[in-house]
């Protein structure tokens, strides 16, 4: 797709300087952009590149004062970064809106109900009684199990697997290879030391505006639902166990893991590779540092923890600081012991 | 599927109270169950819900004494939870037994041998000389490489990838996206600092009654086999490296990782996100806490470790307790130093 | 495939002892090998098995002196292990070279350009304007998005997902279920506490001779490229975030994670389950121990760190050693406190 400077300027309600007919067909960073690309200048650190860039169009801040002549056509907006991001969003929307219809071969059960403009990529499997609402794109090689419902304007990227009976809201974005609704890890120990599977007959409910990263796994509940609430954002390779609840607008970084039945509040931030044990509660706004091991509930809203096992953020940092000096600390104790021994001995001597 | 109270009562050898004709078609937790659902009461904490639930049928303990009238038809059994779990198992068996036959399109090599009642989902690939025994279900979008053998009554969930020459026993359950038999991570360092791949020509052997979680990866051996023994249960996103052995009825929680050639005994329990280095032995019944980093063999059966690097469980907990007070400990040392300095100075003065 | 001792001997420029007509069709470890298999003896620890093995052919070191008669035909080479590995490589090459042509059903866009001898497995999806060079094998159930370029002699194992616009060099090996080019995890916080997606319009560039493990995820850049440089080797279940750079011949073990915009130098070694925060630099030749949490740049080439948070390797090991004795250390402080208290009290008494 090609766009003229005039079109972009109108889209952003910007002010045009230079040729209105200049065209671009892709995007580039200001230090790398080539002819035919659109770029932006937001960070003053990159200012020099504005005068050397080969980009054809540059978005800049309204109030920016040019120090020399520039090659690109300029579009001035209130905030150049926001304007550029808006443009990217619009561009991606246009690209994905072109995806429509059912590619062949695909497998769609007769009892499945798909809105007219849904996209189903080749080699995707849509099971019995599946419902998919308008504007949703299901990319190739995906598996949508029986009785799954998917809301409007979702993106199901390639190779996503959604087990039977799970429910997705609107504007849900699931990245490639993610697994939604696999069995919770529940086994009853038997007297002979073996384990017997506890059937997992609940489901996973994903509310609106949730993003799920690539190869993340979310297990179905034993009974009831594992729930990811509105606006939560999950990165790649995350493990969410059965019956977990993730609150609204909670953000979880890559490779973190949440054990069974733990309830996470709203606006919580969980760092990468952090782990949470099962059956605990995390209050709203809590911050869990990367690689933390959270073994008990965080009841105080907006509190922060770090470390494994995790402790209060500030005092854990202090302990970690001392930890780095432990050998010196031990030496100081040895020196004290020598001195005190000397004092004790002298006391004995002088006491005689 | 619909079931009557009479049918369920017979199935569980239970005692019926109320209308034998009441029907249910799904399951629910006692605090949430709706009309047409079956529920159970096992935990006395939930007793009150028995008198308010909208469930149509409830399974309760033989000896439970009703305090008021109840709406649902009751089925009394020795242990309500066990009865309910039995029912779930039977139900899931019935649902999956309906899956039979080869969905189209699928790719099945002419040299593959599949038992009559095997299910192969659409877009599954079955390579040359593959053998699949009776009752096994292979869900859509799965890849079964050349010469793989799969025993009876296995569940291969959607998008599982099994590389060539791997062997699965009976009643093996592999969840979506798991990869069995990818190359072990073996590279020989070259003089110029680059690495040369060491061919990985072994396989993976998975014995009977093993469960493998979603997106878990199990690498093939360099030579010989990576082995997961009878009844072992592996959660999601686990890494098992080449030539590892996992013992009978060993349980590994999500995101744990086991490095190459490590041998894990029987009935071992490994917590989530734990890591084991390569070439070590873990004795039977060992317990490895979540997020532990095990860097040497555990030779004592039924011993336990925690921490990274992992140490004996009890003494590590003690060290962790002191760690939390390290800043205070340092302060105590400072105070001691001040006092001892004072004593030393006074001694000098009085000694003069 | 069957090979005679004569053929193998010529292939390895080895010296034959025994029947030149002996045939083998597979490989085995010396302690397990059966008739019809080829084995080798390199490690003197396994010497005894040479005299009991059922292998039909054994590769041994040139200078090895036989102590008894042996059953297998022998092939003597300078270094038995290297010879055996060469043979394995050749064997695997021959097996994969047999893979050619387009299996059906597959989906290949009319605008895609595939070299003549490319293999495309069934149920693979090749998008618009994809380029695939000679000798590359794309296994079943893979997804290659629009505008992707793949070099020569690559192996794309089953179920790999490569998003649009990514670029792969030559001799790249990507294992099953890996995801290349999923969206970076970028969200702008809004005033109401919710998050707005920042479009991710960059790509992933993978240079020559890179290996990517099963179910590993590599996110596309926000703008520009996430880059994996020549000869880098990545194990399974690794997370590489947007705009990361991984240097030449750098090796990353399973389940490690690298946060956004971090630049990793050449010949770096990163242990399993290690985590790196975003926006840092790691110098050439650095060593990061398993489970480390690296929170700041490593500027010194060939330096090493361990621990979470990570510190200098040697001093962290010392701190860890003291950590294990923390309870005793605390006891020593208590004893010192008691003695000093006694000395202080005596001083007061004697000072009166």
Helices and strands, with pairings:
3 copies of one chain form a homotrimer.
Chain A: E1 3-4, H1 5-11, E2 15-17, E3 23-24, E4 26-27, E5 37-41, E6 57-61, E7 73-77, H2 80-97, E8 101-102, E9 107-108, E10 113-114, E11 119-120, E12 125-126, E13 131-132, E14 137-138, E15 143-144, E16 149-150, E17 155-156, E18 161-162, E19 167-168, E20 173-174, E21 179-182, E22 187-189, E23 195-197, E24 203-206, E25 211-212, E26 217-219, E27 225-228, E28 233-234, E29 239-240, E30 245-246, E31 251-252, E32 257-258, E33 263-264, E34 269-270, E35 275-276, E36 281-282, E37 287-288, E38 293-294, E39 304-306, E40 311-312, H3 313-324, H4 326-351
Parallel strand pairs in A: 4-5, 5-6, 6-7, 8-11, 9-12, 10-13, 11-14, 12-15, 13-16, 14-17, 15-18, 16-19, 17-20, 18-21, 19-24, 20-25, 21-26, 24-27, 25-28, 26-29, 27-30, 28-31, 29-32, 30-33, 31-34, 32-35, 33-36, 34-37, 35-38, 37-39
Antiparallel strand pairs in A: 1-3, 2-7, 22-23, 39-40
Spatial order of the strands in the main sheet of chain A? Answer: 8-11-14-17-20-25-28-31-34-37-39-40
* Termini separation of chain A: 100 Å
Q: What is the mean pLDDT of chain A?
A: 94
> What structural category arises from helix and sheet content of chain A?
alpha/beta
- Outline type of chain A: flat
């Amino acid at each position: 797709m090609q766009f003229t400077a005039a079109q972009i300027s109108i889209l952003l309600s910007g002010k045009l300087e230079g040729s209105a007919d200049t065209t671009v067909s892709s995007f580039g960073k200001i230090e790398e952009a080539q002819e035919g690309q659109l770029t932006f200048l937001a960070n003053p650190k990159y200012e020099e590149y504005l005068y050397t860039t080969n980009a054809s169009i540059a978005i800049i801040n309204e109030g920016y004062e040019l120090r020399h002549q520039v090659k690109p056509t300029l579009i001035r907006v209130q905030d150049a970064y926001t304007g550029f991001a808006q443009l990217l969003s619009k561009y991606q929307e246009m690209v994905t809106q072109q995806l429509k219809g059912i590619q062949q071969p695909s497998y769609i059960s007769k009892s499945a109900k798909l809105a007219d403009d849904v996209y189903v990529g080749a080699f995707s499997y849509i099971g019995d009684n599946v419902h998919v609402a308008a504007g949703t794109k299901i990319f190739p090689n995906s598996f949508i199990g029986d009785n799954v419902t998917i809301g409007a304007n979702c993106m199901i990227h390639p190779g996503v697997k959604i087990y039977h009976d799970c429910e997705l809201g609107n504007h849900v974005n699931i990245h490639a290879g993610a697994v939604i609704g696999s069995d919770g890890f529940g086994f009853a120990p038997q007297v002979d030391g073996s384990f017997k599977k506890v059937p997992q007959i609940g489901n996973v409910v994903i509310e609106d505006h949730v993003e799920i990263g690539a190869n993340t796994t979310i297990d179905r509940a034993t009974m009831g639902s594992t729930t990811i609430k509105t606006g939560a954002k999950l990165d790649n390779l995350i493990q969410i166990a059965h019956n977990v609840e993730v609150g609204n607008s909670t953000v979880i970084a890559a490779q973190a893991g949440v054990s069974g039945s733990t309830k996470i509040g709203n606006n919580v931030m969980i760092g990468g590779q952090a782990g949470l044990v099962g059956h605990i509660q995390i209050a709203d706004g809590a911050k869990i540092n990367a690689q933390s091991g959270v073994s008990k509930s965080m009841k105080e809203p907006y509190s922060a923890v770090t470390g494994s096992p995790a402790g209060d953020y500030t005092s854990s940092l202090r302990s970690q600081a001392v930890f780095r000096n432990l050998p010196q600390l031990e030496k100081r104790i040895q020196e004290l012991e020598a001195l005190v021994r000397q004092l004790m001995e002298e006391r004995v001597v002088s006491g005689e």
